[in-house]
Every structure is written in C-alpha cells, then in structure tokens.
Amino acid sequence: MRLSFVTLAALPCALFASAAFAQAAAPLTLADTMANPDWIGAPVERAWWSWDGQRVQYQLKRDDSIIRDTWQVGVAGGTPLRLDGAARNDLDGANPAYDAQRTRMAFVRNGDIFVRDLRSGALTQVTRSNDTESRPQWSRDGNLVFRVDNQWYQWRAGQGLSQAAQVRAENDPAKAPKTDDLRERQLAMLQTLREDRAQREAAREQDDAWRRSDGSRAPKPTYLGDDVEIVDSALSPDARWLLVVTQAKKGDAGAAGKMPKYVTESGYEEFEEVRTRVGRNEPLPQKLWLVDVTNAKASELKFGGLPGIGEDPLAALRKAAKKDPLKGERPVRIETDGDGSGVSIRWSDDGRQAAVLVRAIDNKDRWLASVDLGKAALQPRHRLSDAAWIGWNFNDFGWLSDTGKGDDDLWLLSEQSGYSHLYVASGGGAPRAITSGRWEVSEPELSADGKTFFFLCNRKWPGDYEVCAVDRNGGAVREVTALDGVENFMLSPDGRKVLVRHSDSYTPPQLAVVDSSGENTVALTDTRKPGFREREWIQPEYVQVPSKHGAGTVWGKFYGPKNYEPGKKYPIVMFVHGAGYLQNVSARYPNYFREQMFHNLLVQEGYVVLDLDYRASEGYGRDWRTAIYRQMGHPELEDYLDGLEWLVANKQGDRDRAGIYGGSYGGFMTFMALFREPGTFKAGAALRPVADWSQYNHEYTSNILNTPELDPEAYKKSSPIEYASGLKDHLLIAHGMIDDNVFFKDSVMLSQRLIELRKDKWELAPYPMERHSFVRADSWYDEYRRIHELFNRTLK
After folding, report:
1. Cα–Cα distance, 444 to 421 (Å, whole number)
2. Residue 573 DSSP one-character state
3. Radius of gyration of the chain (CA)
C-alpha cells in the first residue's frame, strides 16, 4: 500500500521506506546505490526563520516529483508540518532585509515584496505582479527600495508604492541631434521652425522643473544611449543615487556552439545553442555610471585610478605569442562570482556610501572601491592581485553601521594572506585583519546589533566546518557549533539564535537551532528513510597522505574493511572528484553520495578505496587552489601517485591491481592518469570528461590556462588528447550526449584520436538523454554497471 504524502506529514520526521530497502542486513547491491535517491530521504534544500523566531520554515523535494513543498517546525522541535493552501499566504522568506530599528523585515516570496512587522507580526504585501522583484533594502528613515529588472521602486508605510528611478538604454529625446548642414540651413531660413523648436524646449524645461518640485511625480528617466545594454543596477536606500553597469549593445561575445539532440519529442533531430569556447571571445568589458536621480544626470565612473589597472600581468606571454602589447587600461567587469549571482555593489543604509567590486577580465586583479558621490569618482579601497587568478569565492563585502566614524568602515573577505579572512578598512586606511590562520572564513554575516561577525570556518581541519564568531574589532574567535559538517546558517531576527543547516557522511542536510552563545543545540529534522538510516555504512577514515612532491599533506577519505586478512593484498580503486575546485574530503554529506555508496559496495566485494582532495581542491587556501596554473593534470596526478604509494604501504593495497575513475574534472584526471602513467592503473573510467581544454568555457578555463592563442603551451600541456598515444590499459568513456557543460564532442574527438592511434581495450558509452549531471536512475545504473564490470574484469 502506498501512503499519501498528507498521511506521512503526520509522522515524526522519519518516513517509511519501500520494502526493497527495509532489510538493513541485506548485502548492498548496485541497484541500491544507483536507485532514485528518494529512498534516502530528501535533503533540506532551503531554510529560513519565521518572523517571531519561534518557528523555522524550509523546503523539501516531494517523492517521485520535482515539486518542492514548504514545511514548518518549532524551534523546540516536534513534528514538522507541511504548509499548504491558505497557510502558504503567511509564509516568510529567506534572506530578509531588516530596517535600522530591527522592527520590520522585507523579503521576496514568489517574486513579490512583503514587509513583516516584527512587533505585531502583521504582514503587508507591497507588490503583486508577474514581474520578479529583488534586492530589498531599507534606508535609515524607513524608505524601502527594491528592483524590478533594472527599474527601481520605493515603498514607505502610509505613502504607498512609487517608481523611484528609471534608466533606459535609449537616446535622450531632448538630446541635440548631430550636426547636419541641411537642417541648420532650414532653421536659419524659416522662423516658424525655430519658434516650434523653442516652444518644445521651453515646455520640456518647465516639465522638468515641475517634476523636481512636485513630490507626486515620478523621477524623470535617465538615458544612457542606444549603444549600450544595462547589465546591473543598484539604488541608494534614500532613492537619491543609482549605480548602473552597462556593456556594449550587440558586442561580439563569440560564436555559440550548436549541440545536436537525437532523441526528441518531435521525432526529428534538433539543435540547441550552447556556450562559446574559451577565448572566443572574452566577456564584454563593462562601464559604471553614477546617476543623479533627481536631475536625471548620468556620469561615467572611470577606472583609471585603480592601482595597477594599466599594468599587463600577461605581457611576457603576449610577447612570446607575438601578440600586440596591451594599450591603456585593462578591461574590467563589475562582478563577484562569474555568473552574475553575487552582489557587486553595496550601499550603506544612510545612502551616503557605496562600494563596488571591480574585476579585471584577465582575472589577475580584483579591486574594491567606494564612490565619491560629489565628485562622481571611484576611490580605491583594496586591491587583491594574483599571478594565477582571483577566485570566484571569498568576495563578500559590506558596510559597518554605527561606527561613529561616518559609516566609512568597509568590511571584506580577502585571500591576500593565502587564506580567506575578514578585514575591515577604515576611512582611507589599509584593511586590518580581523581573523587570521591557516584556515578559511566564508559566508560572513553581521549580528543584529552590528557588533559581531558570524561566519563559517574550518579551523580544526580543512573538512570540519562550524559556525564561528568574532568581535567586529577583532579578538578571539569562538566556535558557536560543534556539528562538524555545517553547510550554512541564518541568524534569527533578534540575533539570539542560529539556524544551522548541517550534514554528515550519510546524513543529507538537516536543520538544528543553536543559541548564538553556542549553547542548547536542538535538532529539528531527520528526513532520512529507515531503510537508509538503519543500514550499516562504512564510515570514511579521514587520512593525511604525505606528498613526495612538495605539497605537504594531501587529505583523503579511505574506505576499507573492518578486519584485514593478514598477508592479503587488496585491489585498489581511486576516486577523483569533479569541478577541480570542489571539496569532497569533509565531514559534510558528499556531493558524490552515490559514489560513496558504490565505494561501500566495492569494499564489500574486497576492494580498498581512496578519495583525495588533490591540489586545486577547495578548502585549503589560495596556493593549493592555484597550484595547477598553466599545468592542469600534473600536480593532481602527483597527488594520486602519492596516494597509491600510501595505500600500498599502509592499507595492504596491491600496486599491480589499481584502478581509477571520476566524472567531469575526475574524468579528465582519469585520462591523464592512464595516458601519462601507462601501466600504473590497469583500468580507468572517465565520465563526462574533458579531453581538450580549448573546447571548454572561458570563465573557468581562462583562469587556469589563460587563452589558447595567448598560452598555447599551457593547453598542450594540460589537454589529455595530446597524450592519448600513451594509452595501454583498459578505458571506459561514458558521456551524456546533450551535456551542455562538457560537450559530448570532447569524447567524440578523443574516440577518433584513439581510432587513428589504433588503440584497443577502450570503449565509449553514450547516453542520448543525459546532460552533465545524470538525472535518470536507469542511466546511473547502466553507467556504474559498466564501471563495476570493468574493475571486476581487470582488477580482481
């Protein structure tokens, strides 16, 4: 009998498992590990506080569906309830903006703006539209501004909603036309034409004057010209100033790819437009404008005062490639994270200060600058340079309130010490470190009273994440939680409690509440199904592999038997995580939870397994991240060779029966291992792999290898297809044919190369309806059946 979801909502946290997984003692099967993950239990995906801090609301994926339901549970624990129907009308929202007195919060729900009174709980819906509103911010005197696309609105209690600023990528209709001899001669000849023009101009000037003096009128639009497109904007909370980011309209962004789709509803082949390749072309440079909203006047903010903007860190490569030297300033963009999701402009709540993050397109420099509103000029506050590249993470910044210094204290994250830490820059002075050490600060948030920073830290070891706190002026860092695998956190409206989303190796993200002092941890959810929770899983052993190649320690997760047979040598499987800059050796629930279950199966069948956070991985500081600059696949392979030696020396691993596998970057590394160290690994499975880095995207690849025209040697050194002649061992290539991240073309090109080289012992498994991350259990099963059979055939 199938229980309805409504019935399940009344059960305490844990939900019934299907009969297929009810027997915890049954041996693990491949079908178990690759099944629809609904049998595990849905992870808590998003969570936020209710307005009164007494309840928590969160989202869970519904079984056998893509629908996300909203649930609610009290901070003291108890049975969570799913919110449906009219109950959804009173939901609060994530990432609220609080007013200066902390008596109201504004948030976005379903694309609309709401305001909650934190004293009475009264909820006001500010907008109800089919547009998508975003970025609410309060001024100190209670004005609320928010964005609709790149237009801005304001709301004030008792005064209603009005348009606060409008900027258009059009020519100003009042702008004088270009000089034209015929027009000028006609105007000189005919008085009537001159009089009509004078009357129009007088009427326009009168309307502008009335608009400035009449509080009932919306501000006049500001025109930036028809040769630009608006990329981003940010209005000051007092609605006085607007910062606008533009780039050239119809700029050359490079030729897009065309990806064929063979299995379609139409019955015909179809083609999907996909991203451009690295270096074809670079992202378009951007400009920054300061708009005086009242006077509809736009002033371009020049970047020439940013230190080092005229220097070319790639001059030597440019000269070697016989390219023209850089002339003038380096082009820049106003962005923090490469995909436009990070906020790159921050206003102080009094509207007198704005900070902007400026990134060189070559990604060797990142600047923070404040805006001199009176002079319409940028004032440099901080420069971060890196001979390799500036990371997309650790770029948070904002303003400190109530400093008594005119609110000019800017806080920021920086990797300048080699690790991400908190800094405060006062006035025109250099940033002062608030935290320090061989560990990382991320996701900082100021307390309700503005006196304390809360943030994620990994102080004990790189994979142990807790919520930490420090006084905004510096001092001792304290750990607020003791949960080991904190994913993220949210401070309660009154700042007294911390809502923590946490996980562990076999527990998908769950919720707990902790006092901000660090006391009284209360678990709120456990969404795991009994069939998964009750099974005895192999807990990974966190190990430190000594590097023989100057890297110090390489952290890993080892999976092995409880009891070793004396004298026995165990076949080895080494796993390589994807993304390059990703951390898989941590106390958190792994991105690769299926692979972790597969590793349990391998150990059950007599293997030992090692999963490494090789050089380039996240969580270990700047130098670990940039060790692969211009040499992808080389330091990482050294780390895996060291891992292999460690397994042989410490875990009874059999050097002659070693295999390797991974997806995406892990697939790329599998190629490098088999092609560059033939005979070391008897078999490898390269899943959705990169074969030629010149086929990958610009934002990721140009950081590490520059561009193919500028740095061809880096691409030759780093692309597996250049080493394909070295293949001697067994290779499985598995790839989704509609992968819009790593194109299926990579595997097709490598296949052709292997054919030309007359290589044997390799095979290609295509998946016609899968993208980069598989979503169908049948595909997962087929892929890992092939991997399983490959290892059993070649390593057992």
Report:
1. 10
2. E
3. 29
Alpha-carbon distance of 145 to 220, in angstroms, equals 17
Q: Rounded CA gap, 308 and 348, in Å?
A: 27
Helix H or strand E encompassing 505: none
Pair 671, 665: CB distance under 8 Å = no
Q: Three-state DSSP class for 287?
A: strand
Parallel, antiparallel, or unpaired: how do β-strands 452-457 and 441-446 relate?
antiparallel
Say how far apart CA 520 and CA 516 lie, in whole Å.
9
Residues 6+ apart with CB under 8 A from 700: none
pLDDT tens per residue across span 468-506: 999 999 999 999 999 999 999 999 999 999 999 999 999
255's tokens? 């030729």
- Report which secondary-structure segment, H or E, holds 183: helix 181-189
Among 287, 252, 392, 303, residue whose Cα is nearest residue 702: 392
10 Å Cβ neighbour count for 162?
15
Question: What's the pTM?
Answer: 0.92
Strand order in the sheet with 160-165: 133-138, 144-148, 151-156, 160-165
Cα–Cα separations (whole angstroms), residue 307 to 418, 631, 793 = 21, 29, 60
What is the per-residue pLDDT across 80-93, written as a single tens digit (0 to 9) for each? Answer: 999 999 999 999 99
Side chain identity, residue 502: H
- 319 residue type, one letter: K
pLDDT-based confidence at 219, cuts 50/70/90? confident
φ and ψ of 137, to 5 deg: -150, 140
Pair 343, 350: CB distance under 8 Å: no
Can you tell me whether residue 754 is helix, strand or coil? Answer: helix
Question: CB within 8 A of 159, min separation 6: which ones?
Answer: none
DSSP state at residue 127: -
Tell me, what amino acid is at 101?
Q
151-156 and 286-292 beta bridge pairing = unpaired
